[in-house]
Structures are given as C-alpha cells and as structure tokens.
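Box 3.1 — From sequence to structure: Nicotinate-nucleotide--dimethylbenzimidazole phosphoribosyltransferase
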Amino acid sequence: MNNQWWLEPCRVPDETARQAARHRDVQLTKPAGALGRIDALIPLLAALQGRQRPSVERVFVAIFAGDHGVAEEGISAFPQSVTGQMLGNFVNGGAAISVLAKQLEATLEVIDLGVATPQSLPGVRQVALGPGTCNFTKQSAMSAEACERAMQAGRDSVLRAQQQGSELFIGGEMGIGNTTTAAALACALLGCAPQELAGPGTGLDAAGMAHKCAVIERALALHAGPHDTYGWMQRVGGFELAALTGAYITCAQRGLVALVDGYICSVAALCAVRLNPDCRDWLLFAHRSAEPGHLAVLAALAAQPLLDLGLRLGEGSGAALAVPLLRLACALHDGMATFDEAAVAAKHS
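Predicted structure (token representation):
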C-alpha cells in the first residue's frame, strides 16, 4: 500500500452557503423550523454543494457485486449463484434498484468485483478481483492488494459520477452472504457480540440465526488481534464493502454528497469514517434497516436516517426511495415565496 489515498484530506463544507440557506429559510412563508428535519437538511445540503439552493436532480447509483467465501458455511437462505444471476437482472431492468433508478432518471452502474460464477454481461463493468472472497472462518477474506483494488473500484465509480455532473451518489451492493460479512466486520469494529449485530439477512430462521452467529464467532476468534480498520476489512470484509468504503471516502474528498443505504452500506460507512473521520460530514443516511444490527451501527455514526420503512432488500433501494424526499425538500426551499414576495406579515420580532 504505497499510496494510501483514502487518508488524504476531505473537502470542507461551505459555511457561507450554509448560512445563506438558513437566511433564506427564515424568510420563507412558514414558521421557522415548521418542516422539522427538512428545515435542518437544506442548510447541510447547501454547505456540501456550496450553493444557497441545493439540488439532487442528477443522481448516480453504483451497484457493487461480489461473492463471499463464508457462504460455504451455509449462512444464507439463497444459493451463491444468485449473486451472478442478479447482475443480469440489474442491467436488464428487472431488479428493484433498476426500476427505482429509471423512475428517478438516475444513472445506474453495475460493477462485478468478483462473483463465484464469472460471466460477461453487456452493461456490467468487470473489475475481476477473483471468484469471491475466501472463507474467513479459515483464512483472511482477501489480500491487502485485493482490498486496495476494491477500494479503488469504489473511488473510480465516484470519479465517473463526478464527470457526469452528478449531484448525489448512491452506493448499493449485491452478494449472497454479505450480511454475515457486514455483521462480522461491525462486531470487530464496535466490540459487539454476533448476537447483537447479526440478523436474518435473506430470511434465516432461529436455527439459521444461531448457526450464523456461531460462524461469526469462529471468524472473530481466528482473526483476533489488534488490527486497524483496514486490517479487519482485509480479514473479514468483502469486495463490495471495501468498494463502498472507498466510494464514500472519495465522495468526501471530491465534494460529492453520498446517500448511504441500509445495514451493509452503513457498515462500509463506518469503515470509511474510521479510516478518514472527516468524511462523515458528506454522508447522509437514507433509512433504518430491519436488520437488528443496523441501529448500533447508526448510533456509532451519530446518524439519523431519513426513513424507517422496515426495509432489508439492499441494492441501494432504500437510498433510492429517499431521493424524492430530498428533491421535495430542495423544491420547497427553492420555490416557496418569502414573506415579502407573498406580502404576508412575518412573525413579530
């Protein structure tokens, strides 16, 4: 790791734009703070975008896909072949995120970082880090080089988003077994037991959940040691989690707002913030997942998600569902009349 680009400084939010947005907000024809968290959201977006009137019309969605060696331990209700099959579903328009991206008129990019059943599909970017990670109950999930290349894939995606003039970046993921990987990584970073952070994922029953926790415990015992965040990513992480981590840090370094999806994406966000704490300013959190461990990860990030709909699909779908809310918030801020413009009496001083 000769060039640890993820440690480079992040952009500093524009305080002048933040104050300008606040100044406009208090002049709009409504009581101050009447829109609750929407009123608080606009000055933040303004500061991140460096303009009094923010916009999230141009959205870029990147789906990072990778398989997980730990799937051979039987920790998923679905076969590993689903990961590769879903790549075709993404680019053919049949997946939930595909439908949502179309409705949002967002750019959708699909990146194959390494699936167990390699295939060449039109419309899928190939990074090819291998046929999935290794089984982390037996060895490290990936080499340091593979981890760095996965992070670079996330960085490259953000750079493409920025080249298109995108105003909002959404990262999504696909990989059978990745809730186990996310839980193992979160346990390592937060010092929690698997029973606190592991959930049903694709639909495990009680026995499946107990087995999943036992598998994570074995992995944590095997890799026990004073590892830093990068070390834990390498040992129990996944290609797509590393790519998301790289993407979030790059968003902060390049000045692009990132909207974080659910549990797996939030664990990647936790990795990003642990690696480069200043990137936290650039992360908005879309929703609270039904996965039980998500709440602890959100708390560790001091994050207050926009939605709580009981979602657990992944793919970036929850973040996509939150985009209309952000767009409406921007429209309110931009389109409402001021008291002077509407000839409405303002509040008494």
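Summary of the box: The CA atoms of residues 84 and 238 lie 15 Å apart.
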